[in-house]
């Protein structure tokens, strides 16, 4: 009798799910688990990184949908609020588990958890797959240790490699063995919501957005609109579901190919694939550099600004800086859980270069707020702006006045999000901690 465990993480879907296909063929009984610790794991920034209510709701949406989809396949989603290194050994010692199925997660802490389980249970077949990105590691034309030091080099090497087609849906999964453990409980699906948010987590909402987007002509103008600060149709909006794993990068690529076959390919439609390649690069970047993703000096070991001004940081978080366009972006983030790619670049540049705050605090705040938080993309992009990551130019300091003229010349975005409302005085204390008199 073989018993398998499918260990879910940022891959909350049943479609294009390689773990389920292998489990369906290889084991007699199956347990599906999700480990849901309450706090992020880089402890120095825990208080900043704890998920916002919006991000938590989006995750619960995804778990609801996954539980229902597994139920339709004859399975149950079991959830624990303990870390995997603590909870899974209890399960493995209780039942004669023979197989564990896990997708490769780029984050250092996620990889440490898998490595610990692999070391502690050598008799269990631990099978790791590459279901979160476009490519398996075996498809890379270089060793991971030789990952190109810039995205441009990576793109040129990868853009002609064929992306594997998505897997069809599984029809039925093996039954679940009887067991009872205090740390695990079946996920309790919440009642259906009467009000729908713009972003609802889960596979159904993800597939709806995928279908709706490619049913329009928007992919053919994507490159021209992707840098807009606001507007639902100006970008694909796939990123929250990609980060949750309720949709796969391969599913998006497959739909893009169908669209290009029907409507013709152009630079804009290619740019959707270009952005997927950026995400792919940061995933391998995180896998390559491990915990250096969180280091102040980054992968470049370059000395950076490590100051922390609590008052400035707080004002940045809540959109109360002398920079209206940044204020509008931050208020949009706090209200919706989403910010445009251009907005993220401007907000990061402002915190690092104009306010003089250590970039890691900004990355941690984004982690807490973004519905599309992805450890590799978030921390990799912050390193890029700070000049300690993969940017060959050594960082990006944006002129906020020029950026405002380019992307919000009429101040419509600033006015919509009240970016012009802020304290005139940035600091209330000077360098010696003496109070600064308010400006008359």
Automatic annotation (TrEMBL):
Family annotation (SUPFAM superfamilies): Cryptochrome/photolyase FAD-binding domain, Cryptochrome/photolyase, N-terminal domain
Keywords: Chromophore, FAD, Flavoprotein
Gene3D superfamilies (UniProt xref): 1.25.40.80, DNA Cyclobutane Dipyrimidine Photolyase, subunit A, domain 3, HUPs
GO molecular function, one term: FAD binding
The species this protein was found in: Marinomonas aquimarina
Residues that coordinate or bind FAD: 222, 235-239, 372-374
Domain Photolyase/cryptochrome alpha/beta as annotated: residue spans: 2-134
Pfam family, one: DNA_photolyase
UniProt entry tagged with the keyword Flavoprotein: yes
Protein name per the record: Cryptochrome DASH
Similarity comment: family membership: Belongs to the DNA photolyase class-1 family.
Cofactor(s), names only, from the UniProt record: FAD; (6R)-5,10-methylene-5,6,7,8-tetrahydrofolate
Lineage: Bacteria, Pseudomonadati, Pseudomonadota, Gammaproteobacteria, Oceanospirillales
Domain of life: Bacteria
Function: May have a photoreceptor function.
Cofactor binding note of this UniProt entry: Binds 1 FAD per subunit. Binds 1 5,10-methenyltetrahydrofolate (MTHF) per subunit.
GO BP field: photoreactive repair
């Amino acid at each position: 009798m073989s018993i398998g465990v499918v260990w879910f993480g940022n891959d909350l879907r049943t479609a294009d799910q390689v773990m389920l296909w292998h489990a369906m063929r290889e084991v007699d009984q199956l347990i599906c688990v999700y480990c849901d610790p309450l706090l992020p794991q880089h402890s120095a920034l825990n208080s900043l990184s704890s998920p916002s209510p919006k991000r938590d709701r989006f995750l619960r949406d995804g778990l609801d949908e996954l539980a229902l989809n597994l139920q339709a396949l004859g399975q149950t989603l079991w959830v624990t609020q303990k870390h995997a290194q603590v909870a899974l050994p209890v399960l493995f010692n209780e039942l004669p588990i023979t197989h564990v199925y896990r997708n490769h997660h780029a984050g250092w802490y996620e990889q440490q958890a898998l490595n610990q389980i692999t070391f502690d249970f050598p008799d269990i077949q631990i099978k790791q797959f590459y279901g979160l990105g476009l490519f398996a590691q075996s498809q890379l034309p270089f060793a991971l240790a030789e990952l190109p030091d810039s995205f441009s080099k990576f793109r040129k090497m990868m853009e002609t490699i064929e992306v594997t087609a998505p897997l069809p849906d599984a029809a039925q999964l093996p039954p679940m063995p009887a067991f009872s453990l205090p740390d695990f409980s079946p996920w309790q699906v919440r009642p259906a919501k009467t009000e729908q948010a713009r972003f609802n987590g889960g596979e159904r909402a993800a597939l709806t957005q995928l279908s709706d987007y490619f049913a329009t002509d928007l992919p053919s103008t994507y490159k021209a609109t992707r840098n807009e600060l606001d507007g639902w149709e100006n970008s694909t909006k796939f990123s929250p579901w990609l980060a949750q794993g309720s949709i796969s990068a391969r599913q998006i690529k497959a739909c893009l190919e169908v669209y290009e076959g029907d409507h013709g390919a152009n630079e804009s439609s290619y740019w959707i694939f270009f952005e997927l390649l950026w995400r792919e690069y940061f995933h391998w970047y995180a896998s390559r550099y491990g915990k250096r993703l969180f280091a102040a000096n980054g992968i470049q070991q370059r000395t950076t600004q490590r100051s922390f001004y609590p008052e400035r940081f707080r004002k940045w978080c809540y959109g109360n800086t002398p920079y209206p366009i940044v204020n509008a972006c931050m208020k949009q983030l706090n209200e919706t859980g989403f910010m445009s790619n251009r907005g993220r670049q401007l907000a990061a540049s402002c915190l690092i270069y104009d306010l003089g705050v250590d970039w890691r605090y900004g990355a941690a705040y984004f982690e807490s707020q973004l519905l599309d938080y992805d450890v590799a993309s978030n921390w990799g992009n912050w390193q890029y702006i700070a000049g300690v990551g993969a940017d060959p130019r050594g960082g990006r300091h944006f002129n906020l006045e020029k950026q405002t003229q380019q992307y919000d010349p009429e101040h419509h975005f600033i006015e919509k999000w009240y970016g012009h409302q802020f304290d005139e005085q940035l600091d209330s204390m000077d360098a010696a901690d003496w109070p600064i008199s308010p400006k008359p």
